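Before we proceed, please read the two lines closing this message. Let me know whether the structure tokens fit the sequence:

…
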Amino acid sequence: MQPSLPRVALTCILLLWEASSAAPYAFIGQSTEDLVGAFSIEKTIRFGDSGCFFEDASMPSIAQGKIEPQRVNVTGLSQAVNLTMELEGALPSTATAEFISPTGLEELAIELLPAGASTYHGSATLPAGSEPGLWRLYRVEYMEGDKMGNITDPHELSFLVESMDRYPPHLIDLRFEPKTINRLDLQPIEFQLVAADANALSPDASARFASPSGSQMALVRFAGVEGGGQFLPSEAVPGAWTENAPTTRRWQAGSLILSPNAEPGAWMLLNLTLLDTAGNYQVLCREDLIEAGLPAEFMVE
């Protein structure tokens, strides 16, 4: 049996009345703006790494930033990265800028402290061997009292990490014994040096000596050895070329035996050549070693 028209009309009226009397929190929006409006026109909702929290419109933002240096070479060296930021809005007491490597597997956090009215400055050390490529700023966390938040849309700040070795080996110390030999004894002179370099030293490192008249030459070739040894302790006393030098120390040793026909007198160093496996080299002369307080001659009797 078909329902009567009055009953259908009454049913529609009841349904409309139930919808109009629904609870005020049954809000359905079509956009995030509708969701925000359901709470407050002055607050926004954020979903981030640290959970859901509220931020007001006066949160800090980045006006401008500067990072130095723009190119960082970390081959065998740790390097400082300096960051300066101008913030606007509600200024925090501290902030931390986080940079990520190209793959996102490494990061560098720089703590920023107030350095002026709205200026913040900080520095952090990028370890030797860090991932090469363009490191980008992806987040700035800030703290003001017990309030913490993130600036998740920072300015485009980045720096380039390079891994090319451009540094030559730097001599730290050189020793040899004995300093006086008898040419008829065929006694070897044992040499040992320690140098600082990011890469291994090349076996082509050598020292050349000349006889008193310059008519005879002697060549000492070096090969890698473990730290320390007969003459040099594992903590060698720094010599002249250690400032701004790579910190990885490499030891090399060599031996020299002169012929019985060797010219007697003082044999003087002509040059000492250090090379690394990246093709960088340093050539030192007799005056360089004397200035550094290192031996530069031996006697033949």
